[in-house]
């Protein structure tokens, strides 16, 4: 079979059970059968769905294989029977299924691969939660572990993948109508795995995974057909950064271009040289610009290449970019006469990519890099080189004049050239150039006929001397450039090590600023490092560098923090309001660029700390102001009602103008008593809410039974609680909660549910375990609450227009949620299928669930799943 042509695989991918994968697969089977294709059903699980069973009956089905395991009988796909039948197309459901131990293969996808190797066409189904790469993500979202997985590579090799999509709301309606599971399993499924949030997240995972598959197919197609031009399937704007100060302007311009192209991706790229040298790239600028790109929602990349235009275009084509943003050249007009520059070259070779050349303030101002004539060697070495030239050349001339008859002019030229090379190796460019010119003159005067004259009689001697001069100059330049590159490489290596340490220190700890300054002090041997920021009230003037009242210390490390920028041995201004001050020794010019990177990162860390402090302060003040305003409103309105009723009753009893009989007196006393009780409850609620807001509410949590807490809360409702339905499993895990607070929450939720439930449809209380939590659901079929108002009901003193005196000041749900959160839980609403509102109280499980059977967890989990007759509903 291995020599047969490989079969084709078509996968129907769904976000969750019930979206219609099996139905779609069977429809395709019927369509192919109607065209005369030989189609059989290898294995299809209908789960009791009438519409699915109707489609199965219209196709030929291969008999399943019966397998005995631990006293039970199961049926599996019979691979041998399918191979013996050899249809054109075979339909196989549940690709991720784990076969019963003793089967031909451990997994059904392995059965499918065997059929594909035999040349058959296979149609199969798969849910996105069974993909190996996102298995852990699905478990984190849903709280349900997926033990049956399929390697992504197996699915990606499929010839076709069709997404079977359905909105979460439509899927839940199908569930509520009984089109997916049996009625007794619907409530558990809707309340757990099939929640709107879970389904939305799973749907997004399926779409993103399939989008990656489509991108892979597109890239493979372009590669196979050798298509190098960008296809504008999705707008991507690439901005090229050199590390110069103009990068901020380019990033913002590129972000505006991306914003105008709705949904466009922003990508920044910096081309580094393959020798590791930074050139004119400033690390501080690159750090700042990278942060800016990420703040604008883009991504930052760095590629290596000596040919910058080619590297930029290769990267842009690799990411399928549609637009490329570059800065106008900083090179002078004179330099552009020799080479057109990166921008012009990139635009000429860009092909289908649109290139934007953005002007900036640094245009044609030069790069500021050392020129050709700048020496990379120290002054003592250059002086020694001049000495070698001044002493060595006369000495060499004396020796050669003594051996005039034994050596020819070419030999003299080679000896002079060798001495020029020695001078270049020792002293660098300038001494070597002087030695070359001096050697040219000495050769002309002493060794070129006519001797002792500054003339040359033979043309070939003119050529020889000028070649000598050219070679000597070239060797001098090459040696000096090599020395410069060696020095730059050593400096770049040191900078790279320092910056990598900088990055590591920033990532460690929750407050990176002190660690950053410590790292800077240790790396450069300073005794103190201070980060200063200008006081808000201080004017922005350079004359105030010595004014202590204009600056304040943001962070400091080492001895004697500096109070102004002028007190240090060196200062690095980050901007007009922040400066990094160094104490201990002057800052070397070669180290300034790395220190600027530290300063830029320190400013970012300071900004993050300030934003975090402002957010915390603003949140606290906003909550306090909201509570104070609401409290005043409650005291001025809602608290007055029971107080007025009690006062009116007491005043009437004390009145001598009216004589009350015994019945009237009892009624007035009862009114006063009830009003004062309501007033006490309102005050208690206010005090509890105050304690919650202040974070001082004490809780006595312990392990307790949900069933007992629910029963006690229903009993406290009196006669009204007799209508409440309760479905709490006896084997439900215990929870961690404060019994008194839990009963208070449940009593409030049940009272609300009873108040809004229609006649004949009382509330229902259910409970189930989900991802380490127990969820208690209070279900009513009343009018419900609009989605836009659901969070408002949890605000203190908010009753959405309900002004009944029994409802108090609107603290019930707000206090209930606060109490739930104080016990490590949560309280949130959902729509009841069919209409109404479901309040879900989630509290942590007290004891973790028992471990799975280690003997064969996958098989036992699958057996348990079959026993319940369907897919995941946990």
TrEMBL record:
<dbReference type="InterPro" id="IPR003594">
    <property type="entry name" value="HATPase_dom"/>
</dbReference>
<keyword id="KW-0067">ATP-binding</keyword>
<feature type="transmembrane region" description="Helical">
    <location>
        <begin position="462"/>
        <end position="479"/>
    </location>
</feature>
<dbReference type="Pfam" id="PF02518">
    <property type="entry name" value="HATPase_c"/>
</dbReference>
<feature type="transmembrane region" description="Helical">
    <location>
        <begin position="383"/>
        <end position="401"/>
    </location>
</feature>
<feature type="domain" description="Histidine kinase">
    <location>
        <begin position="634"/>
        <end position="847"/>
    </location>
</feature>
<dbReference type="Pfam" id="PF00582">
    <property type="entry name" value="Usp"/>
</dbReference>
<keyword id="KW-0808">Transferase</keyword>
<dbReference type="InterPro" id="IPR005467">
    <property type="entry name" value="His_kinase_dom"/>
</dbReference>
<dbReference type="GO" id="GO:0005886">
    <property type="term" value="C:plasma membrane"/>
</dbReference>
<dbReference type="Pfam" id="PF00512">
    <property type="entry name" value="HisKA"/>
</dbReference>
<dbReference type="Pfam" id="PF02702">
    <property type="entry name" value="KdpD"/>
</dbReference>
<keyword id="KW-0902">Two-component regulatory system</keyword>
<dbReference type="InterPro" id="IPR006016">
    <property type="entry name" value="UspA"/>
</dbReference>
<feature type="transmembrane region" description="Helical">
    <location>
        <begin position="413"/>
        <end position="442"/>
    </location>
</feature>
<dbReference type="GO" id="GO:0000155">
    <property type="term" value="F:phosphorelay sensor kinase activity"/>
</dbReference>
<dbReference type="GO" id="GO:0005737">
    <property type="term" value="C:cytoplasm"/>
</dbReference>
<keyword id="KW-0597">Phosphoprotein</keyword>
<dbReference type="InterPro" id="IPR003852">
    <property type="entry name" value="Sig_transdc_His_kinase_KdpD_N"/>
</dbReference>
<keyword id="KW-1133">Transmembrane helix</keyword>
<dbReference type="GO" id="GO:0005524">
    <property type="term" value="F:ATP binding"/>
</dbReference>
<dbReference type="InterPro" id="IPR004358">
    <property type="entry name" value="Sig_transdc_His_kin-like_C"/>
</dbReference>
<dbReference type="InterPro" id="IPR052023">
    <property type="entry name" value="Histidine_kinase_KdpD"/>
</dbReference>
<dbReference type="InterPro" id="IPR036097">
    <property type="entry name" value="HisK_dim/P_sf"/>
</dbReference>
<dbReference type="InterPro" id="IPR003661">
    <property type="entry name" value="HisK_dim/P_dom"/>
</dbReference>
<keyword id="KW-0812">Transmembrane</keyword>
<dbReference type="InterPro" id="IPR027417">
    <property type="entry name" value="P-loop_NTPase"/>
</dbReference>
<keyword id="KW-0418">Kinase</keyword>
<dbReference type="InterPro" id="IPR036890">
    <property type="entry name" value="HATPase_C_sf"/>
</dbReference>
<keyword id="KW-0472">Membrane</keyword>
<dbReference type="InterPro" id="IPR025201">
    <property type="entry name" value="KdpD_TM"/>
</dbReference>
<dbReference type="InterPro" id="IPR038318">
    <property type="entry name" value="KdpD_sf"/>
</dbReference>
<keyword id="KW-0547">Nucleotide-binding</keyword>
<dbReference type="InterPro" id="IPR014729">
    <property type="entry name" value="Rossmann-like_a/b/a_fold"/>
</dbReference>
<dbReference type="Pfam" id="PF13493">
    <property type="entry name" value="DUF4118"/>
</dbReference>
<protein>
    <recommendedName>
        <fullName>histidine kinase</fullName>
        <ecNumber>2.7.13.3</ecNumber>
    </recommendedName>
</protein>
């Amino acid at each position: 079979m291995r020599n047969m042509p490989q079969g084709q695989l078509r996968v129907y991918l769904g976000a969750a059970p019930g979206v219609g994968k099996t139905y779609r697969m069977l429809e395709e089977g019927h369509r192919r059968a109607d065209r005369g294709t030989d189609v059989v059903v290898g294995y299809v699980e209908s789960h009791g769905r009438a519409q699915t069973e109707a489609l199965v009956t219209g196709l030929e089905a291969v008999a399943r294989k019966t397998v005995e395991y631990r006293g039970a009988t199961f049926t599996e796909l019979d691979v041998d029977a399918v191979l013996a039948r050899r249809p054109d197309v075979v339909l196989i459901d549940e690709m991720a299924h784990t076969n019963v131990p003793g089967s031909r293969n451990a997994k059904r996808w392995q059965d499918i691969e065997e059929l594909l190797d035999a040349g058959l066409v296979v149609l199969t189904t798969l849910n996105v939660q069974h993909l190996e790469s996102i298995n852990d993500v699905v478990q984190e979202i849903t709280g349900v572990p997926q033990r049956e997985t399929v390697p992504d590579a197996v699915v990606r090799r499929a010839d076709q993948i069709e997404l079977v999509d359905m909105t979460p709301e439509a899927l839940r309606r199908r569930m509520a109508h009984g089109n997916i599971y049996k009625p007794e399993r619907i409530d558990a499924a809707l309340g757990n795995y099939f929640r709107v949030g879970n389904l939305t997240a799973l749907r997004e995972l399926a779409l993103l995974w399939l989008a990656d598959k489509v991108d892979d197919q597109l890239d493979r197609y372009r590669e196979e057909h050798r298509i190098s031009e960008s296809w504008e399937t999705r707008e991507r704007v690439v901005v090229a950064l050199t590390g110069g100060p103009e990068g901020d302007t380019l990033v913002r311009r590129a972000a505006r271009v991306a914003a105008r192209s709705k949904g466009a991706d922003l990508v920044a790229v910096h081309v580094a040289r393959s020798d590791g040298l930074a050139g004119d790239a400033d690390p501080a600028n690159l750090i700042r610009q990278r942060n800016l790109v990420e703040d604008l929602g883009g991504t930052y990349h760095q590629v290596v290449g000596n040919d910058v235009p080619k590297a930029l275009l290769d990267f842009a084509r690799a990411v399928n970019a549609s637009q490329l943003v570059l800065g106008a050249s900083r090179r002078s007009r004179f330099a552009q006469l020799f080479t057109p520059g990166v921008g012009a070259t990139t635009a000429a070779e860009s092909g289908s990519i649109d290139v934007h050349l953005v002007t900036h303030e640094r245009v044609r101002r030069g790069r500021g890099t050392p020129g050709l004539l700048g020496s990379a060697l120290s002054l003592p070495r250059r002086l020694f080189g001049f000495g070698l030239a001044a002493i060595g050349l006369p000495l060499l001339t004396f020796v050669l004049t003594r051996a005039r008859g034994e050596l020819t002019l070419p030999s003299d030229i080679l000896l002079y050239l060798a001495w020029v090379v020695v001078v270049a190796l020792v002293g660098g460019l300038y001494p070597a150039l002087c030695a070359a010119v001096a050697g040219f003159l000495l050769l002309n005067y002493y060794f070129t006929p006519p001797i002792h004259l500054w003339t040359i009689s033979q043309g070939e001697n003119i050529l020889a001397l000028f070649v000598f001069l050219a070679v000597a100059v070239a060797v001098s330049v090459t040696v000096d450039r090599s020395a410069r590159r060696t020095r730059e490489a050593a400096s770049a290596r040191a900078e790279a090590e320092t910056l990598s340490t900088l990055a590591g220190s920033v990532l460690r700890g929750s407050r990176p600023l002190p660690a950053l300054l410590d790292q800077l002090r240790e790396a450069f041997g300073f005794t103190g490092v201070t980060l200063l920021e200008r006081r808000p009230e201080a004017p922005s003037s350079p004359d105030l560098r010595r004014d202590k009242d204009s600056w304040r210390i943001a962070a400091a490390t080492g001895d004697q923090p500096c109070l102004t920028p002028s007190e240090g041995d060196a200062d690095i201004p980050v901007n007009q309001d922040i400066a990094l001050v160094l104490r201990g020794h002057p800052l070397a010019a070669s180290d300034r660029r790395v220190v600027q990177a530290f300063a830029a990162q320190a400013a970012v860390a300071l900004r993050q700390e300030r934003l975090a402090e402002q957010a915390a302060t603003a949140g606290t003040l906003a909550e306090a102001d909201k509570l104070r305003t609401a409290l005043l409103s409650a005291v001025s309105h809602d608290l007055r009602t029971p107080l007025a009723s009690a006062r009116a009753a007491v005043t009437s009893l004390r009145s001598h103008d009216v004589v009350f009989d015994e019945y009237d007196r009892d009624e007035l006393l009862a009114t006063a008593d009830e009003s004062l009780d309501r007033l006490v409850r309102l005050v208690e609620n206010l005090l509890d809410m105050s304690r919650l807001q202040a974070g001082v509410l004490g809780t006595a949590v312990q392990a307790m039974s949900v069933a007992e807490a629910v029963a006690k809360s229903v009993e406290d409702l009196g006669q009204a609680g007799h209508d409440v339905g309760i479905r709490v499993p006896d084997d439900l895990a215990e929870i961690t909660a404060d019994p008194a607070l839990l009963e208070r929450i449940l009593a409030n939720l049940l009272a609300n549910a009873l108040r809004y439930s229609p006649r004949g449809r009382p509330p229902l209380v259910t409970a189930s375990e989900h991802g380490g939590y127990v969820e208690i659901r209070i279900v009513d079929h009343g009018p419900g609450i609009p989605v836009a108002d659901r969070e408002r009901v949890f605000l203190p003193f908010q009753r959405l227009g309900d002004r009944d005196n029994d409802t108090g000041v609107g603290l019930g749900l707000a206090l209930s949620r606060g109490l739930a959160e104080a016990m490590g839980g949560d309280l949130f609403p959902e729509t009841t299928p069919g209409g109404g509102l479901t309040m879900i109280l989630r509290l942590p499980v007290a004891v973790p669930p028992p471990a799975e059977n280690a003997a064969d967890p996958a098989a036992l989990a699958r057996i348990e799943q079959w026993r319940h007759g369907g897919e995941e509903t946990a």
